């Protein structure tokens, strides 16, 4: 299962510093990062699929329940400063899956407020 190969580390500070939250699998949708006391706190992250590096998608939303503006990250990568993408300290919800979500799938998630099927949904 691709989701078991996904790893995500979120940091409150730039350059992978500050408070850290780890996800050791994909297939996760967080409706409100306030559940982790991490709303509007994300500044850097490391995203990986340890088996197939291209098969991972992270979508960060500025609003809770997958609303507002968003940024999409496909494939394994390190982002040391979300400020470079004008998205520092604005993330309120996210979706993490072990495959590549299409732009139309992301638009559907945003319009319906429903993440892809068969993933864990974390609410506050």
Low-confidence stretches: none
- Name of the CATH class: Mainly Beta
Percent of residues in beta strands? 35-45%
Q: What does the oligomeric state look like here?
A: single chain
Topology pattern, helix = H, strand = E: EEEEEEEEHE
- What is the number of independent domains? 1
CATH superfamily: Crystallins
What spatial order of strands do you see in the largest sheet?
Answer: 6-5-8-3-9
CATH architecture descriptor: Sandwich
Radius of gyration: 13 Å
Gap from first CA to last CA: 27 Å
At the third CATH level, what is the topology name?
Gamma-B Crystallin, domain 1
Structure description:
InterPro entries: G_crystallin-like. This protein starts with 5 loop residues before the first strand and ends with a strand. It is mainly beta and 124 residues long. It has a five-stranded mixed sheet with strand order 6-5-8-3-9, covered by helices on one side. The protein has a four-stranded antiparallel sheet with strand order 2-1-4-7, with no helix packed on it. The model has no long low-confidence stretch (mean pLDDT 95). The chain has one domain (6-122): Crystallins (Gamma-B Crystallin, domain 1). It has one helix and nine strands; from the N terminus they run E-E-E-E-E-E-E-E-H-E. It has one helix at residues 103-112, and strands spanning 6-13, 17-23, 28-30, 44-49, 57-63, 67-74, 77-79, 93-97, 120-122.
